[in-house]
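Reopening this ticket.

The earlier resolution said the output was attached, but the attachment link was broken on my side. Pasting everything inline this time so it's all in one place.
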Amino acid sequence: MSPLLKMENVVYKINKRTVLNIKEFSVEENDIMGIMGPNGAGKSTLLKLLSLLDFPNEGRIEYRQKRIEAGNITIDLRRKFAIAMQQASLLNTSVYQNVAIGLKVRKVPKKLIKEKVDYWLDVFKISHLAKKHAYHLSGGEAQRVNLARALILDPEVLFLDEPFAALDFPTKIQLLKELKEILKKTNTTTVFVSHDLLEVKFLTDKLAILMEGEIRQTGETKAVIESPNEKTAPFIREWNDFIK
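Inline output:
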């Protein structure tokens, strides 16, 4: 089976400095793929390239075996992707309106919007917050709204850029558990960027370790964590020692 997303020989530079040098990387359909690495490894930049928010200086990116370049991106292709960032960046309005906004932009009928918003508010256990102003939410509540706003669009690929980084530990663990159940139930292909091994162990099926702009190891999450190679062992070992 061909991968859903694929990169080959991708080089990304900023002011002549090479930020990413990815020989090969792919995401299979229905996978929850983690991208983990130390600060400054290039994780968020890699996510931007995969989500087609930016483009490499060299190499190719494919989606469903079709090469994607800046000149051939359509609205329909954009709508196959959804992103939730570390900062929820909610609109200055109610929770309900925040979750509904994407469907309104797509001119979905009002009745269907209400059905879908009510459904996703219920899934993320925030129905009681529907009329509350988004600026008055706690961090955990804001991220639930952020994730509902992304998933209501029925994306083929969901991109998560450290959305749990600012949450306290109990809130983070609870939301990770709930999100994994939701992603498995909906079969949503997900690319999850994190620098936190605990988050990765909770959420992902597969894991890529990014260090100094290069993919140093990929595989099943458990296998990568338990059997790191020579290049990733110091990083993984440091995290395992911290957890212990």
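Reporter confirms the inline version is readable. The chain has one domain: 30-53+75-207+217-243. The CA atoms of residues 30 and 189 lie 4 Å apart.
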